[in-house]
Amino acid sequence: MASPAAIGAGITGGAVAVAGTSYAAYTQLRPYDDFLDYANRNWYEYIGGDTEKISSKIVGTAGQASNPYKDALKRIRGSWKVGTGGTAIQDTDIDVAGKDGDSTSPKKIDLIKEAVKGWCEETKKNTPTKKDEKIDWSDESMKKDENWKNFADVCLEPPKKVS
After folding, report:
1. Nearest to 55 by CA among 94, 136, 140, 113
2. How many Å apart are CA 22 and CA 86, to the nearest integer?
3. Which of 1, 88, 152, 153 is the most exposed place for a label (fewest CB within 10 A)?
């Protein structure tokens, strides 16, 4: 016959396993809180708080004819909060940023990466546009949401493909 301690340990172990499974299911099935929560639970890497990663995206790859990251920055620059005495960043500033000829003081890349960081930190709290008082977090809906697309293009690294 099993001792009461062994029976108690078995019951406790089972309860812990059920609680752990329930918590894991809850965290995956509950609605998303915001863009950052959606990104984290869908394996994106948030780079919006890391100015070095932002800088490397602005610089791009050597020999690259165009820089899709700079194109994304141009789409959102009107909504940036720039803390440089009201200096507005223009498309031409984005084009020059990270290039060898950027001898301005402060450098354009420094102004832009701080503006991007601020924009990402603010935008990560957003949710998709409500339709009929409901938020649709489906993948199909997210692909159509302009705010999400801009956030993903500027502040996230896409999920790594597993081969």
Report:
1. 113
2. 50
3. 1
Q: 86 and 56: one domain?
A: yes
Report the C-alpha gap between 93 and 111 in whole angstroms. 9
Structure tokens that stand for 73 in this block: 């920055």
* pLDDT value at residue 146: 94
Looking at the structure of the chain, the number of domains it has is: 2
Residue 9 CA, distance from chain mean position: 43
For residues 75 and 42, membership in a common domain is answered with: yes
User: Across the strands, what pairs with 46?
Assistant: 156
Residue 141 dihedral angles phi and psi, to the nearest 5°: -65, -40
Is residue 153 situated within a structural domain? yes
In a domain, 133, yes or no: yes
The CB-based long-range contact list for 8-14 (8 Å cut-off, 24+ gap) reads none
Q: Give yes or no for residue 148 having a pLDDT over 50.
A: yes
Judging by DSSP bridges, how do beta strands 45-46 and 156-157 pair with one another?
A: antiparallel
- Residue 109 sits in the same domain as residue 58: yes
In this structure, how many other beta carbons lie within 10 angstroms of the beta carbon of residue 130?
Answer: 9
Residue 106: cis peptide before it, omega within 30 degrees of 0: yes
What is the pLDDT at residue 24?
Answer: 47
3-state secondary structure of 162: coil
Q: Which of these, 145, 163, 154, lies nearest to 44 by C-alpha position?
A: 154
